[in-house]
Amino acid sequence: MASSPAVSVPIIDTHVHLYPQSEVETHQWYAEDNPLAKQHSIQEYQTATGAPGNLQGYVAIEVDRKNDNAKDWTLPLQEIAWLRRIVTGQPKPGEGHTADDGRDCLGIVPWAPVVLGSAELEKYLAAVEKEAGLETWAKVKGFRYLLQDKPKGTALSDDFIDGLKLLGRKKFVFDLGVDQHKRGRIQLEEAVEMIDRAHEGVDEEDKVVFILNHLCKPDLTIVNVQTDPSYIAWRTAMFTLSKCDRTYMKLSGCFSEMPEFLRARPAEEILSAILPWLAVVIAAFGPERIMFGSDWPVCTLGLGDEAWKKWRRVVEMTCHMAGLGPEAQTRLWAETAREAYKLDSRPVYKVVDLTRSDE
C-alpha cells in the first residue's frame, strides 16, 4: 500500500478519557483485573501521543461514573471537580498533571441524566455549573448518556426526547454512544428515530447537535461484507444518519471492535481490513462532518502506548486513500471538531503540503 503524503495539519483529539488513580473505583466498568483500572491522566496521555507539536488539544469525555440509574449524581459531579482541577491548574499530589496542562483541554463532555427528562436535567446542569466554576463551565460543550448498554426503547422515551430538546435550547451537543456490534441493528434504528424526534418541530438554531461516537461500533470481525446482513444494516444506517440535520461522526473507537490479532498488526494491514467501513463513513458524512478521536485509553487495550500513534497512522492513510487534500484533512483532523463543539479559537496552525514543490 502506498504511503500517505506528508501533510502537516493541526490535530484536535475529540475523544479522551481522563481519571486519577484515587477515583478509578468510581466507574461502572471497574474491576481489579481491568487493564484500564489505573490512573490515566495528562502525563500518561502525553506519553501515549508523544506530544506532537500539531496536537492542539483534546476534548475530555465522561468515563461512565456510577450513578444508580441516573438517580445519584455524586460521582459524576466528582468527575467535574477532577476536570476542574486540570483546567484551573490545581492538581493534587500524584494526579499526573501540572498547573500548565489546563490550556490543552479545549472542551468537556460530562455525563448527564438525559433519561430523567428536562426538569431533572435542568437541575443537574445547574449543579454541574456550580461544581465547575466559571472557567471550567465555559469548556463544557455538551453531554453524554451512554445508550449502548441501556434497555431497548430508552432513547425513544418522551423524557429522553425532552432532555435532548433542552440540550439543544441551551446550545449543548449530545455525544451519542450506541453499539451495533453487541446490541444489533435496533440500536441504529432507534438512533435514527431519536434524532428525528428530537429535531421535530424545533427551530433550526435550537436543534441539538448530535456527535456519533466510534462509527456506532460496527462489527469489524466480518469478513464477507458483500453479503453479511450486519454490515449491510450498518452501511444503510450510516447513509440514513448522514442525512440527519446537525449530525457528525467521530472517526474513533475501531480497535475495540476488531479481532485482537488484527489490532496487533501494522497500521497498513488494519486499514486494509477495515476499509469497507471507513470508506462508507467518508462517503456518507464527508470530511466536513467527520472528526478525529483516539478513544484513549480504551484504544490501548491489547496494544499499550503504541495505540494512539497507530490509530493516527490509520487515519492518515485513510485520508490519503480518500484523496483528501490539505484543506479537507484540516476539517477532519481539527476544524470539524471546532465547529461541532464550538471550541474556543486557538492560534491558526498553518497547513503545509510537503508533497508540493512550491511550499
From TrEMBL:
Ranges of residues in domain Amidohydrolase-related: 12-343
SUPFAM superfamilies the record matches: Metallo-dependent hydrolases
Pfam families per UniProt: Amidohydro_2
InterPro entries per the UniProt record, alphabetical: Amidohydro-rel, Metal_Hydrolase, Metallo-dep_Lactonases
Highest taxon of source: Eukaryota
Recorded family membership: Belongs to the metallo-dependent hydrolases superfamily.
Protein name as catalogued: Amidohydrolase-related domain-containing protein
